[in-house]
Design goal:
Layout: E1 3-9, H1 16-29, E2 33-38, H2 52-63, E3 71-73, H3 86-96, E4 101-107, H4 108-112, E5 128-132, H5 144-152, H6 156-161, H7 169-175, E6 190-192, H8 202-211, H9 226-234
Parallel strand pairs: 1-2, 1-4, 2-3, 4-5, 5-6
Length: 241
Amino acid sequence: MAYIALYGGSFNPIHNGHIKTAIELIKNFKFDKLMFMPNASPPHKNTVKLPYDARMDMLKAALAECQDLPLEISTAEQDSSIAHYTYETLTELRKEHPNDRFVFIMGMDSLLALHTWKRGLEIIELCDIIVLNRPGYDLNDLIADTKECICRHLSASACKALNLSEHDPSACDDLNICKDEPYCACGHQFQFAQNQDFDVSSTQLRELIASSPKQAPEQLYEFLSGAVIDIIYSRHFYGAN
């Protein structure tokens, strides 16, 4: 059985923060492999103008510099003619790989909006979930249904440590949840990563490129691999020319 992490997103473009986070997660959670899973048609984003194949080319270029690490790419969400929903993608992957265990990686911003996803609160029934820190986003902003879902899949001590202790512990006893075993309920678990914040977003990088269309500014090399920058400027992505 392989323990496989799925790191979804638009990767528009893939940047060093994505790569550093992936490496950190592999070290901390001992995945057999971590798979970047770009979404051709993200249902919650209407700003992804760059085609899937273009984003995939940049992703491949970035990972080519990490060949000694168990980083791979999943094409599970490559069909641009349909909207890809995480619950449906995970359902299909579990059918294709019944002997493997999956973990889905999401940011705190996505966790706060999980109740708006298609069958979002049911994703935990299919896999583990690792939540990444995101500046400006806080667990205190979770809606009640998401808090309850998280507490069903955390130990009681973890709930308390995450300030979710308002969840009634007697209810946990009655439902046989929130115990101190490694996994609860369906056998899957929410986990919260203590990842380092990366102080730039893909949106900011696109804006930086658009403001320097003729030549990549030196600052850009702090955030993108040279191979990715070459693709962007040679193929005129994000306003580069």
